[in-house]
Design a protein that fits this description.
Largest sheet of chain B: 2 strands, antiparallel
Structural class of chain B: mainly alpha
GO molecular function (chain A): ATP binding; ATP hydrolysis activity
Subcellular location (chain A): Cell inner membrane
Structural class of chain A: alpha/beta
Mean pLDDT of chain A: 86
Number of strands of chain A: 24
Largest interface: A-B, 28 and 25 residues
Strand order of the largest sheet of chain B: 1-2
Low-confidence stretches of chain A: 669-674
Shape of chain A: globular
Number of helices of chain B: 13
Organism (chain A): Lichenifustis flavocetrariae
Family (chain A): Belongs to the ABC transporter superfamily.
Pfam family, one (chain A): oligo_HPY
Oligomer: heterodimer
Strand content of chain B: under 5%
Distance between the termini of chain A: 37 Å
Chain lengths: ~675, ~350
């Protein structure tokens, strides 16, 4: 075997703060071969980013490498040799300078090489933009970051990294926060560039699906330790470390639903770095913790050729994993219709510009028609910009609908904003939002929003009744009562989201609108929150409106799915029907973009070109026509497609007949059934 | 994406809004100073004038008319559409303006200085503009440099030193630093004059009379601005795109100059321009300490005396300065921050 491109040997990284030193990475060793794609997975706070920053020699003023060494290309890694490593950042919106044009930001990189002038640098930048498949590089060069979409910006960030001609590319969650369709296209691009330039990759992510798609070997990181390392197929086929297995049990699969299995979330959360357990770092959260064995330092063991694991009990698999999770007995929707949208439209109007200001009309929801049944989960899916959140705004009374009705309890609530709704109507529809860090007021205790809801809707009278009710709500969302008086900053993301859910259920709602409630959370936390929602729903028979762009998750928990594109319902139906052919071409593309957490999955490869177009001045025909991979001709642009009913409430809005769609799609989508 | 409007339309629209602002603001100024009509006649004539003259003036000026109507007449005089009734010889006020009774920009007659407002106000404004201009020309580069040096490495020695200077400089009031500087450079060392009448009668050249007032203003104002700029710079240096720039391999000065500077200017820019307003009409204390014949002191005197015409004129001029800086601010902001589009 040739010597590896990157070799990390017994690396130790410490942070020195006001309160003394903490060890972020105690003793880490791994190697990456030239041209190899190495994935590192783990929950947030497990030292993944610290490792990257150590590789980039950028640990800030408090961090330092306290032991071990990093060899790159056969030599010690220094600021000079680091030039062969480039990085792609997590959030492309933040990673680019908002006040510089793309061209000048890119040109800085080649100009670092002595003797390269501005003109040559700009030429190279233009060329590399074409390499990352950005159309019209000349125009992109003159743009500022805010004039581009998130996916385009990430392509620019990748281009910037490539300009350094790296031998090793570090990718720090490069697709987190992007739509699945955009993510799929970026992953394709990365694979293609890697094949062309033979660049090695270190890919950091918490998304096991992405790892399965792009990596050759994977290391699982927990609390600064690499607890398991194996080739990707071996890892997914026979995960050996209990942490790896628990992580995988949290990932939604297209093969299972809430009725067949439930997620097996990992109890608790990673301890803080300062409180590292003496033995196995995962010990306190592990089902197979054996006193006397697991609380001593655990050695690395090689189980097979390339498979390393750091668990003293790896050979006793039954001992380290609780019996597989039984379904929670989730509630089934009954026939009672709680919410009915009938041809509901929402129009935003903006003042135009110029002296003769023409009003600009934006059709955010175009003729939505669907029903939500009591005790069921209605999922609304689509890319960002598809009008999902606009619908949530109308339902919660933040913006009035413009046309059609949105009937709730015999009243058209769509036309009545929050100020016009009765207290009972307000209490009946509650929201849980995407970002738990931003939804709680940092200066109030966690119980404050719950108390306010209880008082405002008169659901509990008197201090003792309110306090008892708050306790009950904390129990409901499985939060320790001791957190009642804490500020939100003391809570983890998952705990904050539990507070948000408790707040919503404090009002005893009939409908819970959950707008991407888990997309900002780690998979392990996501699994716990989803289980919690399903559990509460089973007890209370609440109707849940689940807005998400994660189709695998939707497949797990929804009863009825509505697929939206550019404000219009493209397809809807019961979950079993929707995830089997025939699909609307848009649904088909969304499904093919899911990063499936199975390296052997055969997935059809349909990629949508470009971004979702502007909803202003939409063409008269099918809204999806401009990006549709199955477009059949001019008819798609000019004539609105018919709504085709395939039975059992499954509807597809498309010019292509159902039979034809079925035939086109059946062969390519076996993975859906396995 | 919507098309950009032609620049000419943007400018026209901006000007229209400026004129509207000025009209509204001048009405407020007029209303506040002339709301009680009896006062106007009395103040114009002074406390010892007989009641008959006051009554006559009351008649002559039509002070019984509603406020809006009187404002219209006042505006007419200001724009040169009407003659100033106070200059009517029949009133025996002896208000004479060599420019005539009817011209554009007629601010009326100052009862304090017994001269047309236009003869009083411009020299005062000029003196203050000189003081403000020199101070501003020092304050801005100084506080930008210090603020950026402090903010580029938060918590470093340079940062702590500059921050302490900033706090000390802002917390010492102008009169205190004025007295302190006078004690040092005038009384003890005798290098500089203690007053600044801007005449050479005392044997000191004019430039030397400017040194101390400018120093006081620079000390007081730059302390505040340094802290503003430092804060913005610290904020920018913690943004992820700075990390991107560093990990690209740029040197630290390159990172600061190319990626930090412009972003760090965006937030303090408006505040920096607001200092012009402060320097023009808010430096009364400094002008008093150094007996400087400036605009701020004139406003103070006019207010204490009750010189309505002068107060109105001065306020209106201060307003124009404020509106102009605002315009400059909007334009500069749009140049600095490409995410802002002029509307």
């Amino acid at each position: 075997m040739t010597s590896p491109l990157l070799s990390v040997e017994n690396l130790r990284v410490e942070y020195h703060g006001a309160s003394g030193a903490v060890t972020a990475i105690p003793d880490l060793s791994f190697a990456v071969q030239a041209g190899e794609s190495y994935g590192i997975v783990g929950e947030s706070g497990c030292g993944k980013s610290t490792l990257l920053m150590a590789l980039m020699q950028h640990l800030g003023r408090t961090g330092r490498i306290a032991g071990g060494r990093i060899l790159f290309d056969g030599a010690d890694l220094t600021a000079a040799t680091r030039r062969g490593i480039a990085m792609v950042y997590q959030d492309p919106n933040a990673a680019l300078n908002p006040t510089m044009t793309i061209g000048s930001q890119l040109a800085e990189v080649p100009m670092l090489v002595p003797g390269v002038g501005k003109r040559e640098a700009l030429d190279r930048a233009r060329q590399i933009l074409a390499d990352v498949q950005l159309p019209n590089p000349e125009r992109v060069m003159a743009r500022y970051p805010h004039q581009m979409s998130g996916g385009q910006k990430q392509r620019v960030v990748i281009a910037m990294a490539l300009l350094a001609n790296p031998k090793l590319l570090l990718l720090d969650e490069p697709t987190t926060g992007l739509d699945a369709t955009v993510e799929a296209a970026i992953l394709d691009l990365i694979s293609e560039l890697r094949a062309r330039h033979n660049t090695a990759l270190i890919y950091i992510t918490h998304n096991l699906g992405v790892v399965a798609q792009v990596c050759d070997r994977v290391g699982v990181m927990y609390l600064g330790d690499l607890v398991e390392e194996a080739p990707v197929r071996a890892l997914f086929a026979t995960p050996k470390h209990p942490y790896t297995r628990r992580l995988m049990a949290c990932v939604p699969h297209l093969g299972s639903t809430k009725h067949s299995t439930s997620f097996l979330p990992i109890p608790g959360q990673p301890p803080s770095l300062a409180r590292r357990p003496p033995g196995c770092p995962f010990g306190p959260r592990c089902d197979g913790f054996a006193p006397g064995r697991c609380d001593h330092p655990v050695p690395d063991e090689t189980t097979e050729a390339d498979h390393r694991v750091r668990c003293i009990r790896w050979a006793e698999p039954g001992a380290t994993l609780a019996a597989s999770a039984a379904p929670l007995a989730p509630s089934l929707p009954d026939d009672e219709v709680v919410l009915k949208a009938a041809d509901m439209s929402t129009v935003y109007t903006f003042a135009g510009s110029g002296f003769r200001a023409r009003k600009v009309r934006l059709l955010a929801n175009a003729g939505l028609s669907f029903e939500a049944h009591k005790g069921g989960v209605l999922a609304i899916v689509g890319e960002s910009g598809s009008g999902k959140s606009s619908f949530a705004r109308v339902l919660s009374g933040l913006y009035p609908s413009s046309d059609g009705t949105l009937a709730f309890g015999g009243v058209d609530v769509g036309r009545r904003d929050v100020t016009q709704r009765t207290a009972a109507e307000l209490a009946a529809i509650q929201m849980v939002f995407q970002n738990p860090d931003a939804t709680l007021n940092p200066s109030h205790s966690t119980e404050f929003p719950l108390r306010r809801v209880l008082k405002k809707f008169g659901l509990a009278k008197g201090e003792r009744a309110i306090s008892a009710e708050v306790d009950r709500l904390f129990d409901l969302v499985r939060l320790p009562r001791g957190l009642r008086r804490q500020r939100p900053s003391r809570l983890s993301g998952g705990q904050k989201q539990r507070v948000a859910i408790a707040r919503a259920f404090a009002a005893q709602p009939q409908i819970l609108v959950a707008d991407e409630p888990v997309s900002a959370l780690d998979v392990s936390v996501q699994a716990a929150i989803v289980n919690l929602l399903l559990q509460i729903q089973a007890d209370k028979r609440t109707t849940i409106l689940f807005i998400s762009h994660d189709l695998a998750l939707v497949h797990h928990l929804a009863d009825h799915v509505v697929v939206m594109y550019l404000g219009k319902v493209m397809e809807q139906g019961p979950v079993g029907r929707l995830f089997a052919p025939p699909f609307h071409p848009y649904t088909e593309a969304l499904l093919s973009a899911i990063p499936v957490a199975d390296p052997d999955a055969v997935q059809s490869r349909i990629r949508l070109k470009g971004d979702i177009p502007s909803p202003i001045d939409v063409p008269p025909g099918c809204r999806f026509a401009s990006r549709c991979p199955r477009r059949i001709g001019d008819i798609c642009d000019t004539i609105p497609p018919p709504l085709r009913d395939t039975g059992e409430g499954h509807e597809i809005l498309c010019h292509i007949p159902v039979m034809t769609l079925s035939e086109l799609q059946t062969k390519k989508n076996e993975f859906v059934f396995n | 994406m919507r098309d950009r409007l032609p620049v000419i339309v943007l400018i026209a629209r901006k000007l229209l809004s400026v004129i509207l602002t000025l009209l509204l603001a001048s009405f407020l100024v007029f209303a506040v100073s002339e709301f009680s009509p009896g006062n106007v006649a009395r103040k114009t004539l002074g406390p010892y004038a007989p009641q008959e003259s006051v009554d006559l003036l009351y008649q002559k000026l039509g002070l019984k008319d509603p406020l809006v109507e009187r404002y219209g007449r006042w505006l007419g005089i200001l724009l040169g559409l009407r003659a100033d009734p106070l200059q009517d010889p029949a009133l025996k006020l002896n208000f004479v303006d060599p420019r005539g009774a009817r011209y554009f920009g007629n601010f009326g007659y100052s009862s304090l200085y017994k001269a047309p407002v236009n003869d009083v106000i411009w020299s005062r404004l000029g003196a203050t503009a000189m003081l403000a201009g020199i101070a501003f020309a020092i304050i801005v580069p100084l506080s930008l440099t210090l603020g950026i040096l402090a903010g580029m490495r938060e918590g470093g020695l340079l940062d702590r030193t500059i921050s302490v200077f900033g706090i000390v400089a802002t917390s010492v009031p102008e009169f205190a630093s004025g007295v302190f500087l006078v004690a040092l450079f005038v009384v003890l060392l005798g290098w500089l004059p203690g007053t600044s009448p801007l005449t050479t009668g005392g044997g000191w050249p004019v430039w030397s009379q400017l040194v101390l007032p400018v120093s006081v203003l620079v000390l007081y104002d730059s302390g505040y601005l340094v802290r503003m700029v430092r804060g913005a710079m610290v904020d920018v240096m913690n943004r992820p795109f700075i990390r991107t720039a560093m990990l690209k391999g740029l040197s630290f000065p390159q990172v600061v100059l190319r990626h930090g500077l412009r972003n760090a200017m965006i937030a303090p820019f408006t505040v920096i321009l607001l200092q012009i307003n402060f320097l023009i009409s808010g430096v009364v204390v400094t002008e008093l300490v150094f007996a400087y014949p400036g605009f701020g002191r004139m406003i103070l005197d006019a207010s204490l005396f009750g010189d309505i015409s002068l107060i109105e004129a001065a306020t209106l001029i201060a307003l124009c300065v404020a509106v102009t800086t605002q315009l400059l601010g909007d334009a500069g902001y749009a140049l600095l921050n490409p995410q802002i589009r002029l509307r």
